[in-house]
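so my prof wants the structure for this chain in the tokens format not the other one, which i didnt know existed until like an hour ago. anyway here's the sequence
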Amino acid sequence: MNDKQPNLGRHKRNCTICSHARRQEIEADFVAWRSPIAITGEYGLRDRSTVYRHAHALGLFTERQRNVRAALEKIIERAGDVEVSASAVVSAVQAYAKINANGRWVERSEQVNVTDLFQRMTDEELTRYASEGILPEWAESVLGATEGGYSRA
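here's what i got, hopefully its the right format
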């Protein structure tokens, strides 16, 4: 892709999308990850290169990339309509959960301070854990949400 910034005045004079009555809808569809082929069909445009040329000239690719959640939403919504594997749907949901409202990937991690956990235990719970390796029932709410969870003897 050419990184050179196009002449906006020239682009606007020659672009069928810039003068299109439904320009805002076309741009919104592109940013929402609608297929350029579907966009050309619905709005009577010549071909998908028209959509790509307009998007490049106006910097819509950056906006579209920040809106990757919209693409994942479409995959998740269609899970019941098309034949996909459960792992593909789970992967899309997991990816969706890691992308914030600005379109940035955010790794979430949870940590448990074991010292704090032991300090919360009663003497009886500590003794049972030391002798039998069994954590108290309430520990499930603390450890159950962490990656890998925990195991009770």
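also thought this was worth mentioning. Confidence is low (pLDDT under 50) at residues 145-153.
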